[in-house]
Specification:
Belongs to the COMM domain-containing protein 6 family. InterPro entries: COMM, COMMD4/6/7/8. It comes from Vidua macroura. A hairpin with a 5-residue loop joins strand 2 and strand 3 (about 160-165). The protein starts with a helix and ends with a helix. The chain has two domains: about 1-110, no CATH class; about 120-185, Roll (Nuclear Transport Factor 2, Chain: A). Helices cover about 55% and strands about 15% of the residues. Helix 3 crosses helix 4. With about 190 residues, the chain is of the alpha+beta class.
Length: about 190
C-alpha cells in the first residue's frame, strides 16, 4: 500500500484520511472510493479503484488499530516509522495531523464499531422497464423492475448492488417492506 500512497497527491490523501475517520466515527456510512478515484485520475494520477480501495482498507485498519490500542499521536507516528515499507513524508504528516485532530473520538466509538459485522444500507433507486423484444423473441412486452441498492460494507467501501424483479416479485418485495415498516412503528 505504501507504493500506492506515494502516487496520491497530499490533498486527496488528506481527504481520504478524513473520510475514513468520519466513517470510523459513524458520521458517514462509508468512503466513496469510486468518486475519489475518478477525481484523482482527472488530476493526472494513474491509480485504479482497486489500488485506492486497498489504501483505504489499510488506513482504516491503521486508524482502528491505533484507536483500539489508545495510541497517542507520537506513538502512532513512531510505529509508522518503524514499518518495513516506509510511508512518504507527506503521508505521515497527514496521518499525524488527522490523528491529532480527530483520533480520540474514534477511541470512544471503537467498541460500537466492533459489533458491526454487516454492511450498512445507504440508498435505494428503482426504475420500471419493459423488454420489448430480443434476438430470439420478436414481441416480449415483459415489464420488470430494476433495483439498485447502495451499500457500505463493514470496511467502509461504498458499492452498488443491482437486481431485476418481475412484477409479482416486486409486489412481494413491497409487501415485505410494508411489514417491516409496521413492525418498526411499534418499536
Amino acid at each position: 500500500a505504501a507504493d500506492k500512497i506515494r502516487l496520491i497527491p497530499q490533498d486527496f490523501f488528506a481527504e481520504l484520511c478524513e473520510q475514513i475517520i468520519q466513517h470510523l466515527n459513524h458520521k458517514i456510512p462509508g468512503v466513496n472510493t469510486a468518486e475519489l478515484c475518478q477525481r484523482i485520475q482527472t488530476s493526472g494520477v494513474d491509480i485504479t479503484i482497486g489500488d485506492l480501495a486497498k489504501v483505504a482498507n489499510t488506513l482504516s485498519f491503521l486508524f482502528s488499530t491505533a484507536a483500539r490500542n489508545n495510541l497517542s499521536t507520537e506513538e502512532l507516528v513512531t510505529t509508522l516509522g518503524s514499518g518495513i515499507s516506509t510511508l512518504p513524508k507527506h503521508a505521515v504528516q497527514v496521518i499525524r495531523h488527522v490523528w491529532n485532530e480527530q483520533g480520540k473520538a474514534i477511541a470512544v466509538s471503537e467498541d460500537a464499531r466492533n459489533t458491526a459485522t454487516v454492511g450498512q444500507f445507504v440508498d435505494m433507486k428503482w426504475k420500471l422497464g419493459v423488454a420489448m423484444s430480443s434476438d430470439t423473441c420478436r414481441s416480449l412486452k415483459y415489464p420488470y423492475v430494476t433495483v439498485t441498492l447502495t451499500v457500505a460494507d463493514p470496511s467502509g467501501q461504498i458499492t452498488d448492488k443491482s437486481f431485476e424483479m418481475t412484477i409479482p416479485q416486486f409486489k412481494n418485495f413491497f409487501r415485505q417492506f410494508k411489514e417491516m415498516a409496521s413492525v418498526l412503528e411499534t418499536v
